[in-house]
């Protein structure tokens, strides 16, 4: 088991009750702001002490309230990439990377820094300070600092959130390749489902300080356990319905909605949203449901606000949950 977490924690009025385990090389904790993602990560790192529970990494106990084990952060051999990178402004790139290597012989420090410079494509930047670096370069320096001590676990807190979209997309692709080179288990915190799906094999979905679902990414993405999980993994349409005479909650992704013209239209187009690679339409059905559907760009001339269409889920694409789970 790469990581096992089962903790209870309280800070101010916020209560965290997080429980999951993963044997994947990369685990993503996905959730909206305030879900408890970063607090969970800080507890694993030893920067926040739970009230009770257990944290294990590759069979090593990092925290166990019953056994009174609470390894300090410096003894957990965990690399941590903070959301704001937290580079030291007065230190050079090489000095920032070497910061976690204090106490080791100079030759070993130089070798580790050199390896990080090679691995993260930082050649020529060794003597620069953070103020002279781009956002992507600062991120790579912070990652080098986290990796230089050869950690047993790498923790990443929203590592791409501060970057512009082109830089973010480029670095996500780089990071996928980098994972093969570093071979270190990691836990990634993010609110971006695409980022989580690209970088991790295991998803932990959190909301309100609790784990809503945990499992292999394909299972969580294609079979969300509840409407709350469905929203977080990108299901835009969630509404009440009746199936086989029983009330249920139904979820359908925008890409799985079929928009057709012809007889018996049942929805009015309110707005089109052009995202460049995707054209979306917002509809109100005759029974009052608000739906989002992916549109055929070749028909954009007909897609005028106020126009009438038939909007329905493609066969076999609906997600269905008991009405008791709520909408």
How many strands, what sense, and barrel or not for the largest sheet? Answer: 6 strands, mixed
Number of strands: 19
Residue share in helix? 10-25%
Query: Strand fraction band?
Result: 25-35%
**What is the topology, as strand order, of the major beta sheet?**
7-8-9-3-10-11
Category by helix and strand content: alpha+beta
Order of helices and strands: EEEHEEEEHHHEHEHEEHHEEEEEEEE
Q: Would you give an account of this structure?
A:
This protein has eight helices and 19 strands. Strands 7-8-9-3-10-11 form a six-stranded mixed β-sheet, with helices on both faces. The mean pLDDT is 91. It is an alpha+beta fold.
Fold blueprint:
Blueprint: E1 3-11, E2 14-22, E3 26-30, H1 37-45, E4 52-57, E5 60-64, E6 69-70, E7 78-81, H2 93-98, H3 106-119, H4 135-147, E8 153-157, H5 165-182, E9 186-190, H6 193-199, E10 202-207, E11 210-216, H7 217-222, H8 227-232, E12 237-243, E13 246-252, E14 257-260, E15 267-274, E16 279-285, E17 290-294, E18 308-313, E19 319-322
Parallel strand pairs: 3-9, 3-10, 7-8, 8-9
Antiparallel strand pairs: 1-2, 1-4, 4-5, 5-6, 10-11, 12-13, 13-19, 14-18, 15-16, 15-18, 16-17
Features:
327 residues; alpha+beta; six-stranded mixed beta sheet; five-stranded antiparallel beta sheet; 19 strands; 24% helix; 34% strand; globular
Concise structural overview:
This protein is 24% helix and 34% strand.
